[in-house]
Amino acid sequence: MDPEKPSCIREGCEATVMYGNSYDNPNIYYMTRFLCSDNLIYIKTGKEDVLITNNMEEERAEEEACVDRVTSPKNLKNWDSGKDSGFETKSKLIDVVLQDCGYEDAKVCVDSNFPVGLYKEMNCDVKVVEGLLDERRSVKGSEEIEEIRKSQESAHASVVRAREILAESNVEDGILLFDGEFLTQGRLKKEILNKLLERDCYCEGVIVSSGDESAFPHKTGTDSKKIRAGVPIIVDVFPLGRSSRYHGDITRTFVKRKPKKEVKEIHEAVLEAQKAALNCLKPGILAAEVDKEVRSVFKRNGYTQEKNKANGAEFKHSTGHGIGLEVHEKPRIGKESKYRLSEGNVVAIEPGLYYKELGGVRIEDVAVIREDGAEVLGRMNRSMEV
Fold first, then answer.
1. How many degrees, rounded to 5, is the angle at CA 133 between CA 128 and CA 137?
2. Contact criterion met (CB below 8 Å) for 76 and 62
3. Tens of pLDDT, residues 208-258
4. What residues contact 260, with CB distance under 8 A and at least 6 apart?
């Protein structure tokens, strides 16, 4: 884990409490670096941080968790849970550990995703904080950046594989033919997932959408749909490192054979917009300014946000987002964002334009904000025609 960062205990509170399993709760994994499918209780005080596991996981947690102390119910003084194992018992566990740390009637802070059932049973003063670790997690240390780099390399490899399949495919009656069968969006997804698994990564919800489906930015694509020549094929892969838990994120838009004139024009505009955004990334710049740069490129090319668009193309989402233990996290790169970028932010930049009838074009890469600008993690050809 990278060097210690500022405490997650908010002003006016004496402790922070988190609850959940560390596969689904990235904050617990971030604070403990311990992966466990069973629910955990993490308590951070000004004196120490404590991880409460069940009795079975205690020994493993002592070896793997990056915390001051690991304990389980059997170790707690005067502990008698009876037969109850619900939220009431969990609340008592928290009380006992806080008292053990020297805090009676402590005021604690919890994240907004804290279970309501446990919140209702808490015997102490609880302050709910939205985005409790957002700011802390938004600035990555060197080890975190290297894990994101590895996941991004896997993302690249999987999209290269997708491009290879498109290149190797023949066209029969306007439909792509691969390995003697019509190429479906589902088959291309499976090939992408196989490449990711080879590299100890996985991606839930990988996007392969073609033709009219690609006009919807986050439509994952109907698996049974056959891929046609001459239409946009959006491939968006955001793999999770199965060991590291850090994500990568990449999007490319392909067209097998010759694209329509309008599609080629919006690809050129999207590519220009992405380059402009990447070039203006630096510490101190407002995220909204990066988004504004993208929109100005689109406007210069005749693509506006007016309700009645003569060219029919829309930019339907923000320019980008932070990436790390979650595929979408702070900072948000959008026109309403108040965030000022800082060194150590890792962001995905993904402008796109979408035609309802023709489909869409999106290009996405991940960049690290450095002292003197931005470093794009990996370089992959952004050309559209295959």
1. 170
2. no
3. 999 999 999 999 999 999 999 999 999 999 999 999 999 999 999 999 999
4. 230, 358
Q: How much is the pLDDT for 8? A: 80
DSSP 337-376: ---B--TTBEEEE--EEEETTTEEEE-BEEEEEETTEEEE
| CATH topology for the 15-132 domain | Creatine Amidinohydrolase; Chain A, domain 1 (3.40.350)
* Cis ω before 331 (30° cut-off from 0): yes
DSSP string, 18-34: EEE-TTT-HHHHHHH--
pLDDT digits (tens, 9 = 90+) for 324-371: 999 999 999 999 999 999 999 999 999 999 998 889 999 999 999 999
Residue 190: which residues within 8 A CB-CB, separation 6 or more? none
Regions of the chain where pLDDT drops below 50: 1, 3, 5-6, 307-308
CATH topology of domain 139-376: Creatine Amidinohydrolase (3.90.230)
Domain boundaries, the chain: 15-132, 139-376
In degrees rounded to 5, what are phi and psi of residue 107?
-95, 125
The 10 Å Cβ neighbour count of residue 336 is: 9
What is the pLDDT at residue 89?
87
